[in-house]
Each structure stands twice: as C-alpha cells, then as structure tokens.
Design goal:
The chain has helices at residues 54-69, 73-78, 83-96, 197-207, 250-260, 291-294, 304-313, 349-355, 358-362, 365-372, 378-384, 408-415, 425-437, 464-479, 486-489, 538-546, and strands at 6-9, 99-106, 113-124, 127-141, 148-150, 167-172, 178-181, 217-222, 231-237, 242-245, 266-271, 278-284, 328-331, 334-337, 496-503, 512-519, 522-528. The protein is α+β, with helices and mostly antiparallel strands. It has a five-stranded mixed sheet. The chain has a five-stranded antiparallel sheet with strand order 12-11-17-16-15, sandwiched between helices. It has a three-stranded antiparallel sheet with strand order 6-8-9. Helix 7 crosses helix 14 (464-479).
Length: 549
C-alpha cells in the first residue's frame, strides 16, 4: 500500500478488505491453479468454456476491485482481458488523479455486469475534497485461457472515460473557468441544462483565456485530443471565472431540454433566422455526444426544402402549378414510392410538397440534368444558397452537412433526403432559417468579434420569388388540413411553416423521425431516431421549442 493511503472494499455482496483478499489460488501472471501441486507434477487443465458462472462473476469482480482499491495495478490488470492497457490505467487513476483514499462498494450483479460505487478523496497540495460516482464492470471468459476476466474498458474506472487516450488528472486547471450566460445575462449551468455540459466544456477550452478570470485546482478528464474538450469532474478550489455571453435563450433551452428528455435518442436545435444566433441545443441522452451539432444522418423529406428551392430556381415548377405525383417512379433502376403508395391527380407542386409526395420530385430529375450544363444541381444549391458543406465557425465543434455530387439512382435518393445526404438538426434548422429569411446566415453560439473568427458566407441568396414560394409551401404544410405537419403545428402561434421527414436507415425496422419548422423569427429542427413519421415524435419536440416563452 502506497503512502499510507486508506483503501477498502465493502458491501453486502463482497465483504472483503483490500490487502487481505484471497485470490482463489490463481497465479495472476499465467492463470494456472497453484497450491497443492508442485510445478513439476501439476497437469494443465483444458481451458474452461461456456458462459461465466455466478460464482466466477462475483469472485472476479471482487478480486479486481480489491486490487484496484489496494493500489495494486499489475494485479488488477492481470484480472482483465487486456492487462497491458488496464494495468497502467489503474496506476494512473491513483497517481494522475491524486487519489489519497478510496472505498469501493459493489452492488448486486445483473447478469455478468457488476455495478459499484466509488467514494474517494482527492488531495492536491494540502487541499482535499471527497469525490464519489457510480460505474460498472462486466466479466467475460478469456478466449485463450478460459479464465473469468473483467472486460476492460476505460469506463470501468470512471463512466466518462470513453477512449483509451483519456486520462484522469488533478492539478491547476489549464484554462480559467467561465461563467456562461444566455443572451439576457442568465447563467447557464450543466446542472440546470444537462445538454449544455459538453458545450460548456468546449466553450471553456476555447474562450477561458479570452474572457479573463483565474484558474483553480480541479480534477478533470484529459481527452488526449486537441479536438475534444477536457471534462471537469471536481473543483477542489475555485478560480475566478470570466463571463462568457452566448446566444442561447434560457427559456428556449429549458423547453428544448424538457422536450427531448421524453425520448431515448433525440436532438433539437433552434436558430434565429434573421441573425443565425443559436437559441437552443439539446440532446437525449444529455451530457455526452452532441448529436445536435455533430451528428451525420440522412434527413429524409426535410431535404425537400433544398430540392424544392432548386426546382423553383430553375423554373421547372411553380408552387401553384400542377405537378405529377404518381404512386411510384423509377430512375436509373431505383424505384421510389410514396408513403402507402398514395398519388395525387392534378395537384399543384405546393400541395405535393405539403403532402410530401416523393415522386413529384423524382419526376423532375431529368429536367434538372438537361438544364444543368455549367449551371447548378442539388449539391451546388445546398452549398451556394444554404451554406451546407462550408466551414461553419459556430464557436464549438460542428459538422456542417454534406450533399456530395451524385448521378443516376444516387441522385434520386438525394432529392428526398436519402442516400449520401448527411445532416444534423443544426443543419436542418439552418436550412429552414434560410428559407424563412431568404439568406443563409451562419449559425453561431458566441459572437465572432470575441476571437475574430470569420463566418461562412453563401455565394448567393434565394431569389425573392423563390423564397416567397418556399415559405408559402411550408406554411401550407403546417396549416392546411392535408399538410403532413398540421398536427404538431396546430398549437404553434404566429407566422408558421414546416416540413416533415422520415429517413429509412438500413438495419432499422422503424425510420428516423425528422421535423423542422419556423414561427416568426425562430426556426427549429429535431431528430428522434427510430421513431417513425416526422409528426409522430420530432414534430412535438419542435412545437414545444417554438412555443417557448
């Protein structure tokens, strides 16, 4: 035991004191049984196979946790299926994080998984503070030895250690903390707005030195990557935070957090069309990957906003003129159908948009190809008018959408938001904001003049007649009795328009639910994975965000 550190492992399932643990006769270095036979006479048993037993799960978890608590990283590592990685990681836990005392309490195993809690004390330069959290481990059978072993992952040591490069550190913080506030000066904290946890971490990393303040002593997860912000876990002594003003609106953010929380995997973004200011960003689950800004998914029929803009700009359709909408259409071997095979006879293009008729768009691909030449197609429309694929400088990491050049059947899929089109709610909310305002304004969370970063600019804006028709079609989608968005949008006040989307993903039985809409000077987009039609799940999220006070 090092430095007289207090270590123990307690609990109703395992009642063993670290340092006095019996390891069941295992030789931890080679996995053979010891005790009764001498090395000259013992015989090697065939490796055991089959699922791990309850006794093996209990014993292996007990022994691993005891070795960890006792500060014996080599022993702990040998009880895992990756001792080369696990041993140094366990050693780094105590040394890197400055853990001076640790008590680990296992819970009742669930199958081969054993939950446990850690109550530790962090001590740095005479300052100590308690630190507690919950984690879990899983016991598997070794592929070559047949021994029961802990399945190694960094998250065993702490649930927020998600990569092999990430490590725990305690010391003087690398950057001063920030007090992030919304556009009205209201403080934004991860405790009140859980989805903002990774956003606030990154804002601190990028702007801590720009807004004044002084550093304190903290325990944090060092990501090991310049692209990923460190995550503060414990503050031993506070520095003086600098104040960082963001574009978030606390009321809209609160509504967004509450709305996505009802779903297992959901995200939403809200943007002010006249400025590009991001008013809310929320994810479920909260606090981890920022799917709202960094996700890359097919957006389904929400992409028809861009496709419709292309067709309108080329003069191939008009919102109030008839457009073909057969039950199905084939293009270069790809058969595209409408939902439940519906068709429209003599309906306008605007009605086809509102009813989300796929074939009305597919039928126009040949005409686009014929008129293209040195002109523009869908990929260029997305980039040059809607800013998709430009390098957005939002203030944190963001993926700016992708619409690659495509021909044949691939083009047909792109027209309806399938195939190689990749978007996230930030991108789709921006597309709707552009349709509403008529001009792309790059989304942002922090003002550009704080760090003099250049905003992305689109080459051109929507012609006034195109923007007007696009907005009118979205209004029809949200208000007409036959519009696919009328249900969720019924409660939304003000000048409103919308577009629904359902993206069919390989390997999923249920499509992803997409929905985007505007109301006055606010645009929002939401994605709920494997939740069906856009109005079923994503729609209610967007409506709640647009209705936020």
């Amino acid at each position: 035991m090092r430095s007289g550190a207090k270590v123990a492992i307690v609990g109703s399932v395992f009642a063993v004191v670290a340092g006095g643990v019996g390891y069941g006769g295992y030789n931890l270095w080679n996995g053979v049984m010891g005790g009764e036979q001498s090395p000259e006479t013992r015989t090697a048993a065939a490796p055991r196979t089959g699922p791990v037993t309850g006794e093996e799960i209990t014993t292996t978890a007990r022994d691993f946790l005891a070795a960890w608590a006792a500060g014996e990283p080599e022993k702990a590592g040998q009880l895992t299926n990756d001792p080369v990685t696990a041993g140094p990681a366990v050693a780094s836990y105590r040394e890197g994080a400055s853990v001076s005392a640790a008590e680990i309490t296992p819970g009742t195993p669930v199958g081969a998984t054993v939950p446990f809690t850690v109550k530790a004390t962090i001590t740095y330069e005479g300052v100590s503070k308690p630190w507690s959290y919950a984690s879990e481990l899983t016991v598997v059978r070794g592929q070559t030895t047949g021994r029961p072993l802990v399945k190694w992952a960094p998250s065993v040591l702490h649930p927020k250690l998600r990569t092999a490069e990430a490590t725990l550190r305690t010391g003087v913080a690398k950057t001063a903390s920030v007090k992030a506030v919304d556009r009205n000066g209201k403080e934004l904290t991860a405790e009140k707005y859980p989805s903002l946890a990774p956003v606030l971490d990154e804002l601190r990393k990028r702007y801590g030195s720009e807004v004044g303040g002084s550093t304190g002593v903290e325990t944090w997860i060092e990501s090991g990557s310049e692209a990923v912000a460190d995550t503060t876990l414990l503050v031993l002594s506070k520095g003086k935070p600098g104040t960082l003003k963001t574009t978030i609106d606390a009321g809209v953010q609160a509504a967004a957090e509450k709305a996505v929380k009802e779903y297992g995997s959901a995200s939403v973004v809200a943007i002010q069309p006249t400025t590009g200011a991001v008013r809310a960003v929320a994810n479920s689950p909260a606090g981890g990957f920022n799917a709202a800004f960094e996700g890359q998914k097919m957006p389904g029929s929400t992409m028809k906003i861009v496709t419709a803009a292309l067709l309108l700009e080329k003069g191939l359709v008009k919102a109030d003129q008839a457009a073909e909408c057969p039950p199905s259409a084939m293009y270069y071997g790809r058969t595209i159908t409408n939902l439940k095979g519906f068709s429209l006879n003599g309906a306008s293009f605007g009605e086809s948009f509102a009813r989300s008729c796929n074939t009305a768009f597919i039928k126009k691909i040949d005409d686009v190809e014929k008129t293209e030449g040195d002109d523009f197609g869908l990929a260029r429309e997305a980039k040059e008018v809607f800013g998709i694929g430009l390098e957005w400088k939002t203030g944190i990491r963001s993926v700016d959408g992708s619409v690659p050049e495509a021909t044949g059947g691939g083009a047909a899929e792109q027209y309806i938001g399938q195939g190689t089109v990749q978007m996230n709610p930030l991108n789709i909310a921006s597309i709707t904001a552009t349709a509403k305002d008529g001009r792309f304004r790059q989304p942002y969370l922090v003002a550009a003049d704080l760090d003099d970063r250049p905003f992305a600019k689109a080459e051109r804006q929507l012609p006034a007649s195109v923007a007007r028709q696009l907005r009118d079609m979205m209004r029809t989608t949200a208000t007409a009795s036959y519009g696919t968005a009328v249900g969720p949008m019924a409660s939304v006040r003000g000048d409103k328009g919308a577009k629904t989307g359902s993206a069919e993903v390989d390997g999923q039985q249920t499509s992803d639910s997409w929905f985007t809409a505007f109301a006055d000077d606010l645009a929002a987009a939401a994605l709920v994975e494997e939740a069906g039609h856009g109005s079923d799940a994503a729609g209610p999220i967007v409506a709640r965000v647009l209705n936020a006070d």
